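Contributing new records

If you add data, match the layout below exactly. Sequence lines come first and carry their own label; structure lines follow with theirs. Keep one chain per record. Anything else will be rejected by the validation script.
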Amino acid sequence: MTQPTPTRSWVASANGHADFPLQNLPLGIFSINGSAPRSGVAIGDAILDLHAALDEFDGEARRAVEATAGGQLNAFFELGRGPRVALRERLLELLAEGSKLQTREAQVLHRAIDCQMHLPARINDYTDFYVGIEHAQNVGKLFRPDNPLLPNYKYVPIGYHGRASTIRPSGTDVRRPKGQTLPAGQTEPTFGPCARLDYELELGIWIGQGNAMGDAIAIGDAAEHIAGFCLLNDWSARDIQAWEYQPLGPFLSKSFITSISPWVVTAEALEPFRKAQPARPEGDPQPLSYLLDKRDQNAGAFDIELEVLLTTASMREQNLPAHRLTLSNTEHMYWTVAQMVAHHSVNGCQLQAGDLFGSGTLSGPQPGQFGSLLEITEGGKKPIELPSGEVRKFLEDGDEIILRGRCIREGFASIGFGECRGTVVAAR
């Protein structure tokens, strides 16, 4: 007889924790007191040190833990679903109420507040997609009011190759970039600090097992190639972007930093929060056959609430709470994650364990759901007023953006992604 899944942990802070209850168990890389980075699991307000508890694992679960050695999760991602599930099942046993592991608490558990988080994996490649249709339409209306969506959008999961070398974990400062901009009414560009700095609210997707060069990943198999998820902020220099993006798209306006939340939330943890991909509006084309799979359409989307908050230096000095800018959801993705994987590989492009995808900005259709200041302020035409009395068209030095993601469903414990933070500092 199958044993019931435990719901409570001997780690007291995990019970009722908004992000990291027993039902989540995301993986990440941490260090403590200057030690070498190592793998851990978030549980409540603590981190389980996987290698300190290595002797508690055997079989496929032990193989999974051993693959997390060396301060990177790439080898673990490459193992695929089987060992990942075995590890999760053993972790559920070890961290559940009544587990003998509690007697080793001092050995295997660290307070999260005492730890420093690192990138979970070595990121060889980073691709940023554009699957948030509401964002695409909102931005399109600013520049092409009569034709906001280009004809290929509903046929192709649009993406561009980003810069992996400047992806950083939550908490890393965001240095205001410099670049060329074209001032209004001028015919020649100037060089200097970005004046229209923005954030973008995105879901990050970690690739698990890759594919051989020349071999496409079939849409029906694509979900098996996804190791987990995080939050992603694709910081954007809108004035630099406006000058440089034609004809080849984003370049220096996007490559200065991309922030991610440090915990990898696995596909298994998100299983209760899967949902059918929303039906396409009447008149929209069906995806081409290599992008269409019945199982993916029935359960390939996720119900993840996404939130953006802003604090300024003045607000922090006055102890004012962070101001919510956005409350959106991953349900606004026009393409599923599996469709992104299938399309990326269909030409024979090789994906590798630890590659990172960004979903593109995930705005909703209503005010209060927009995932960037570009949309909220209509390109700077409608500044927002903050509780401190300050106004913002775009981000100023000292501003901090906080992304949060959470899954909520009646009858299930809520799980979250932790935070993705970044504070803007002045250009050098």
